[in-house]
Amino acid sequence: MVVSTSAIFGRASCELVTFRSRAPVLTMTPCRFAVCCFTTVASAAAYEWAGIFQTPQDEYMWTAQKVDGNYADPAMNLVVLPASRSTATELDSLKAEGERLVNTNSSVCTSVTFGDVITPQKDTCYSLKFDMNLWQTVYRMNTKGVAAVAFFAEHVPTEFENTAHYLKDSTGEDIEPDAELPLPPAETKPWGPVIGAAIITNLITFVGVVLLVPAIARLQSMYPVAFTGIISGFAAGALLSCACFLLLFEATHLVAVGWKKEVDILWRWGTMILAGFILPTIVHSVTGLVVAREKSNKDQQDAGDGQAEEAGQELVNIQTRYRLIGGVLVGDFFHNLCDGFFVGAAFSGCGDSFGWKVALATFLHELPQELADFAILISPEAGLGRFKALVANFISGMGVLLGALIVLAAEVSDSDTGLLLAFGGGVYLHVAATECMPKIYNTDLTVVESFVCLGAFIIGAVLIGLILIDHEHCVPAASNGGHAHGH
User: Fold this and answer.
1) Contacts of 468-473 spanning 24+ positions with Cβ under 8 A
2) Closest CA to 76 of 64, 94, 61
């Protein structure tokens, strides 16, 4: 008999081929070695999987579905034991009884078919008979007066999952185990590749040095208005494209992981975008009140009317400078932080090959974006200076390394990552739409120069959009046994 055994945590599969002899032979499809170890350990016991669940409701539903047109097996032994609490210790204490019962000959077990009721009982084994004429077979689970239930199954229940989770409550919500057996082996985290990819990505922040080339610097001094318009158009295209194609889109489905109702997803996603959009304005206002206002008042006390007007203009310039610098660096930091989340998650959850693909996509979209950021930082309005701009861009780029290390050291939920992406996207929308785009409409630009600025916008947008070709991301499997998935 050939049984397709899914990995307990849904990341891959192996085929367990059992011959007449007692020795099992494993034929591996491409999968991680650790996954096959799970299956090997499981096959050594009488049960392949065990899990314990809290059961506060009186009734639940156990579901088995056909996968690729067939059930993994026409029948399955299942032991359902009542438990006092849903803990790993309680599950371990029931292991001997569960293993003994699940190994009972199926002809001795209580046979149940579609719609029958399964009640948690000691010294009882159920033989689930799947209806070959239906695409799924459903059983009712009577848990009235039972605080927790421990299942010991002949097969891993995810083998019988196609479109629905194997255990649901009376409202149709998926129920996940608080503990499972066999225990997964300790994962080796890919510190080296993740840190290497993050450092390479961070080095891209120095791409702004191309603007320090004498020939390019000379063009900037000879045609300041046109040069500023072209660079601003390029920056606007890159930032808006990054926000619309990447940050905000990725945020939509990541935020949806944490909440079920559409309204719960929508208000959080929208609020974070608006919060990011208003951040540069807050920086502008706070700067005017706390920093620039004091300097302006002091200058006005020592100056006449003419100098007072000049001091007021200086206040506006300082506010604009801090708004631009703060908006670009904060937005870039959050973007890089989330890039680090994705790179770290791709390596740790999907392997080195997939991880480097995600890293390559990150490299490609960082190139035009970091060039755009540098151009804004050295613009007359920001006036940060070339060397300071390079250093500031490099420091904000450290978010990639920080994000990758956070993912490896501690689990960051997909929903939290999505909220950060939405916030970063809101900041980019503000900087691109209110600071960069208006420079394309400068009345001192000729018609030809205006079209060149428009072309720069298109180039910036296209360079970011190119990474959408064969673009995919990976969300690692949740610790509760959810399935990994790529998009």
Assistant:
1) 468/245, 471/361, 472/357, 472/358, 473/250, 473/342, 473/346, 473/358
2) 64
| Residues comprising the chain, all counted | 487
Which of 213, 201, 206, 200 has the alpha carbon at shortest distance from 391?
A: 206
- What does the block give as tokens for 28? 């591996």
User: In terms of DSSP bridges, do strands 148-153 and 75-83 run parallel, antiparallel, or are they unpaired?
Assistant: antiparallel
* Tens digits of residue pLDDT in 171-190: 989 999 999 988 766 667 78
Look at the block and give the residue holding tokens 């993050």: 198
- Among residues 88, 153, 86, 163, which one has the least CA distance to residue 118? 153
CA distances from 343 to 112, 352, 363, 368, 371 (A): 47, 10, 11, 19, 21
Closest CA to 365 of 229, 200, 196, 204: 204
CA 474 to chain centre: 7
Residue with tokens 């599969």: 13
Ramachandran assignment for 172, one of left (phi > 0), alpha (psi -120 to 50 degrees), beta (any other): left
CA–CA separation, 481 and 479 (whole Å): 5
Report the distance separating Cα 214 and Cα 452, nearest Å: 22
Q: Quickly tell me which residue has 């909220």 as its tokens.
A: 419
What is the pTM assigned to this prediction? 0.53
Condensed to tens digits (0 to 9), the pLDDT of residues 281-334 reads 776 676 556 554 555 555 555 555 555 555 555 555 676 777 777 777 777 787
Find all residues with CB under 8 Å of 26, minimum gap 6, and list them: 14, 15, 16, 17, 36, 39, 40
